[in-house]
Amino acid sequence: MGISRRELIVGAAVGSLPVRSVYGNDSPRIDLKQRGRAAGKPALVAAGNAFPYVTAGYEMLKNGGDTLDAAIAVVKGPEDDPNDDSVGLGGLPNEEGVVELDASCMHGPTRQAGAVGGVHNIKNVSMLAREVMLHSGHVMLVGEGAERFAVARGFPRENLLTDASRKVWLLWKEAHSDWWGPGLASPQWRERLHERLRSATGTTYLNRLASTAADLGIAPDRQDKAIQDVLFPPTGTTHCSTLKGDGAMSACTTTSGLAWKIPGRLGDSPIVGAGCYTDQDVGSAGATGSGEENIKIVGAHTIVENMRKGMPPLEAGIDALRRIVRRYDGDRERLKYIDMTYYILRKDGEYAGVSMWTGYEPNRPHTIAVHDGQARLEKTVSIFEGISQEWPPLVAPSSSTL
Questions:
Q1: Which of 9, 172, 235, 358: disulfide with 201, CB 3.0–4.6 Å?
Q2: Burial class for 159, CB neighbours closer than 10 Å (0-12, 13-18, 19+)
């Protein structure tokens, strides 16, 4: 079988090793070197998966376009891409096989906000969040009401579950895993260690998943990724914060949420102040990663308030990450299941990208997309060295295999 074991079993393998040997020194790794400035000219900061679209957003800013329109132009790219399974069309569905989308936006110049959650059948929820902001007396609409509002505003209903995502969902059902049971913050969190696929990384089990993937018609070059998404449910999101030369700012965050989630689950992306926040007087921030953890510290708002108090963007983001660490009393045994990335842009053009861990996978560090006249990807500054593991956890293989 051609399946690579390394990426699939690394999360389970760390469960049997000392945390220090996998994740480096006990003290957080901080590099307080500040990122570049772009004062007096346009700039934008976005999630790494939005990199192919940052030039379009930057050109809108440079030509005097609205800051929120520019942010949406960036995040709309992944929404429209059926091969990007983190947002919009082709997003990985909930446990019932339904793609459920969330988004929020803030417009700095008018200090308005809009958000939608749990939306079915509407591809561009970033644009729908803007419609809620502009054409309703509300800030957030969810579920069926949000979908009806979208249709009334001229959005077409579309089937968002692509054939590729449907096949991965069917493979996930074969794995008999789910999001029911105690969460990471629960005192009973260890119960998941005993409930979750006890031999999930055993050779026989991986062979069975690979055989099932082939039977479902998943292309050979996509089978490894499909199995990884089943065993390590991804959190899919994109964000963009924008700044014009005159200081106007906006931001938008959009997502298909957590793969295989319980229907109706909302993460941080549609929560104004958690997954997205802009204050025209200060700056803007957005988030991707462990939504449940970010909601509890209202991460994007916390970062902007830190900057209001005088913290530079990098320090403001590191402080937000440390608040998550504090909620778990620095317990690395649980923190290895948490990752957050923040994208931060201050009104004067200074920016930063910070993350809990170096990356989700070996040799694939977290990145931010930046354009301030030059488009580029930059690595985040992480407080812990190493890779994170998705929750719920897999446990180390037993002596027997499935």
A1: 9
A2: exposed
Q: What is the pTM of this model?
A: 0.84
Residues paired with residue 367 on neighbouring β-strands, in sequence order: 379
Task: Report helix angle 299-308 to 313-327, nearest 10.
Answer: 130
Q: What are the CA-CA distances from residue 196 to residues 213, 286, 318 (Å)?
A: 20, 32, 32
Handedness of CA 77, 108, 305, 379 (dihedral sign): positive
Which helix (DSSP H) or strand (DSSP E) does residue 371 occupy?
Answer: strand 367-371
Residue 173's alpha-carbon distances to 60, 161, 181, 202, in angstroms, are 43, 16, 17, 18
**Phi/psi-derived region of residue 37, left when phi > 0, alpha when psi is between -120 and 50, beta in every other case:** beta
C-alpha to C-alpha distances, 70 to 90, 252, 286, 397, nearest whole angstrom? 23, 10, 15, 48
- Smallest CA-to-CA distance from 319 within 299, 339, 333, 337 is with 299
Q: What is the pLDDT along the chain (402 residues), one digit of tens a residue?
A: 343 433 333 333 333 323 322 223 333 444 444 444 445 799 999 999 999 999 999 999 999 999 999 999 999 999 999 988 889 998 889 999 999 999 999 999 999 999 999 999 999 999 999 999 999 999 999 999 999 999 999 999 999 999 999 998 888 887 766 677 777 888 877 766 544 444 444 567 778 788 888 888 888 888 888 887 877 777 779 999 999 999 999 999 999 988 889 999 999 999 999 999 999 999 999 999 999 999 999 999 999 999 999 999 999 999 999 999 999 999 998 999 999 999 999 999 999 999 999 998 778 899 999 999 999 999 999 999 999 887 765 543 333 333
* Active-site residue set: 237
From the number of C-beta atoms within 10 Å of its C-beta (0-12, 13-18, 19+), residue 236 rates as buried
Beta strands in 127-270 (DSSP E): 140-142, 235-243, 249-258
Instruction: Assess contact for 130 and 114: CB atoms under 8 A.
Output: yes
Determine the Cα–Cα distance for residues 89 and 85; give it in Å rounded to an integer: 8
CB 149 within 8 A of CB 132: yes
Total residues found in the chain within this entry? 402
Q: Are 253 and 86 in contact (CB under 8 A)?
A: no
How far is residue 249's CA from residue 125's CA, in Å, rounded to a whole number? 20
In the three-class reduction of DSSP (H, G, I as helix; E, B as strand; rest coil), residue 38 is classed as coil
